Structure formats: C-alpha cells, structure tokens
C-alpha cells in the first residue's frame, strides 16, 4: 500500500484496454452475423405478433394495437398499409437485413433507425408498441443476462 | 502475517475467523442491498459497480485469501437468494470465483497495487459471468458482449480498487 498506482497497474490497464479494443474491432469487422436459422421476431403491444426467418425476403404489415377494432381485417400484403389501417408499421426483411420502412407515427424514429442484421439488435416503435428484433436459433441472450 | 491462526490446534475454524468473516459478510451484504435498491439503470444489462467487492478486497489485503474467499462466497450466495434470484447467483458465483483466483494470484506477484488487482478482478468477474451465460444458452455469439463488459469491468474495478485502497489506508 505504499503506492496508489504502480507501474504494473498501468501496463495491465493498457493491456486490458487493448484487448477490449481489439475485441470490439474484430467484432465490428465480422459484423457478428446472425447466422443460419436466425429469426426476425415482431412483437406488437407486448405480445408476439409473428416470427420469420431472417434469410427470407418479405414485407410485413403490422397493424398497431391501438387500431382498436378487435375484428380488424388481416393485413392484405398487396395493398398499401395506409389504405388499410390508421396505425401501422411496415417491416421489410431483405437480404438478411431488417428495417421498418413505413410507420403511421409522427416521429418516425423506427424508420430512421435504419437496418438491423445482427443478433440482439432491435428496432422499437413506441407509439405503436412495436418491437422488431433478431434472435439466433439459440434464443435470446438478453433474457438471461439481466 | 500477524493475525491469529485461522485454525485452532484441533483443526476447526477459530472463533475469531468465524466472527470476522461473519461481520464482513454482513457488511458486504448491506452493500449489495444498497446497490440493489438504488434505481439506476445504465441501459445495458449486466453492468453495475459491485461496491460490495470493496469488502472482499479489504478482506484480502487485511486478513488474507481465505477470509476474502469466505466473505465473497457467503455474500454472493446470500445476495443471490435475497435480491438477484438463482440465475443471478450463478452468474455472480462464477464471476466471484474467477475474480478471487485472479486477485489472489496477482497479489502474490507483489507487482500490482490494490487498484490494479481490483481492476483485474472487475474484468475477471465480468468474464466469469459471460462464460456462464455462454454455457447456459449454448451460444458463443454472446461474446459480442465481451468488449462492453471488458470496459465496464475495468471502470468498476478501478473505482472499487480506489475505494478499497482508501479504506485500507484508513484502517491501517
């Protein structure tokens, strides 16, 4: 306890930071591919709306819970979402990437969020209570690391 | 070492060891509790200061490895049962064992200060948790979380180390 910080501490600190930086660089380079069998999970109003394979391209119309009508018609993928619903999001899966391409809300945060392609990434639309996330086939890590 | 022997001649734990460890475990548990009730959320799961580890570090330097190990394990088990749940306990236990081993080893080299030892412990603690998480979900991709835990472990470890060093200075 003669010294608060010793030389070896600083060396250790630099080594640890370097390892951390190298790891994050390596990870961002490999982009942490979601891998085969990754799923796109769409939750609406706190419950599961649909699950699709990340590998298959598709456009999904998700009516928001506050659309209200219990007997709201199922979305027709051939018609524009805005003609069918007042409150909705459109989720596009394309080339292993997921984005929200259309939203009825004012702030458009989810649309501006851009694309996600890695396990664990999420896009959230708070006004429509929509959560889109990617999970590997092993399941979500975020449910166990809390 | 000037303390009384940890084991009496009959080979059982001495009363002073039991009393000392009990006291320190209780103190550490209070730290865990205070940390559990403070509603702060850094937005990333798994990141916290771990202020209770101050007690572990002080125990290690003031009384030795056995005391530190006993305090740490008792604290983790009790805090797990009381606040964190069984899964939380499993993570913490892995982290605690790994960081204890690291601390004892680094302290033995005599090269590092309290702060340095604690910094390494913070990183090892997070690494232990990550290993358990990877084993539980059987998916090594969770290691994309590694850099985050690395840096938070460094930061938390340094903070705990500085506090511990100040404590040890005051206790001398």
Characterize the structure shown.
Chain A is an alpha+beta fold and 146 residues long. Chain A folds into two domains: 1-30; 39-135, N-utilization substance G protein NusG, insert domain (mini-chromosome maintenance (MCM) complex, domain 2, Sandwich), CATH 2.60.320. Chain A is built from three helices and seven strands. Chain A has helices at 7-30, 81-84, 109-112, and strands spanning 39-44, 47-53, 58-63, 88-94, 97-103, 122-125, 130-135. In chain A, strands 2-1-7-6 form a four-stranded antiparallel beta sheet, with no helix packed on it. A three-stranded antiparallel beta sheet of chain A has the order 3-4-5. In chain A, a hairpin with a 2-residue loop joins β4 and β5 (97-103). The radius of gyration of chain A is 21 Å and the shape is elongated. In chain A, 25% of the residues are buried. The model of chain A is unreliable at 139-146 (pLDDT under 50). Chain B is an all-alpha fold. Chain B has one domain: Arp2/3 complex 21 kDa subunit ARPC3 (Orthogonal Bundle), CATH 1.10.1760.20. In chain B, 75% of the residues lie in helices and 0% in strands. Chain B contains five helices and no strands. Chain B has helices spanning 15-37, 53-63, 65-109, 114-137, 146-171. The mean pLDDT of chain B is 85. Chains A and B meet through α1 of A and α3, α4 and α5 of B.
């Amino acid at each position: 306890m003669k010294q608060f910080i010793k030389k070896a501490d600083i060396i250790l600190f630099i080594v640890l930071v370097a390892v951390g930086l190298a790891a994050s660089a390596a990870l961002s380079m490999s982009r942490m591919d979601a891998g085969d069998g990754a799923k796109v999970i769409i939750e609406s109003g706190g419950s599961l709306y649909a699950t699709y394979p990340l590998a298959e391209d598709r456009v999904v119309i998700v009516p928001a819970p506050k659309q209200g009508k219990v007997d709201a018609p199922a979305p027709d993928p051939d018609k524009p979402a805005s003609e069918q619903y007042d409150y909705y999001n459109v989720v596009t899966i394309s080339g292993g990437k997921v984005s929200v391409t259309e939203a009825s809300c004012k702030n458009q945060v989810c649309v501006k969020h851009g694309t996600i392609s890695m396990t664990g990434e999420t896009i959230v639309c708070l006004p429509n209570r929509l959560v889109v996330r990617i999970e590997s086939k092993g399941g979500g890590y975020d449910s166990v690391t809390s | 070492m000037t303390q009384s022997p940890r084991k009496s001649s009959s080979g059982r734990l001495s009363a002073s060891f039991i009393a000392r460890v009990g006291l320190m475990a209780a103190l550490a548990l209070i730290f865990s509790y205070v940390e559990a009730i403070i509603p702060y959320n850094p937005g990333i799961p798994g990141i916290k200061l771990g202020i209770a580890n101050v007690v572990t570090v002080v125990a290690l330097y003031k009384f030795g490895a056995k005391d530190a190990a006993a305090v740490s394990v008792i604290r983790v088990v009790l805090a797990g049962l009381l606040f964190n749940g069984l899964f939380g306990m499993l993570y913490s236990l892995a982290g605690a064992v790994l960081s204890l081993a690291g601390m004892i080893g680094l302290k033995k080299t005599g090269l590092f200060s309290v702060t340095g030892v604690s910094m390494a412990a913070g990183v090892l603690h997070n690494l232990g948790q990550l290993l358990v998480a990877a084993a539980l979900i059987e998916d090594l991709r969770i290691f994309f979380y590694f850099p985050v835990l690395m840096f938070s472990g460094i930061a938390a470890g340094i903070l705990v180390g500085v506090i511990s060093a100040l404590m040890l200075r005051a206790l001398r």
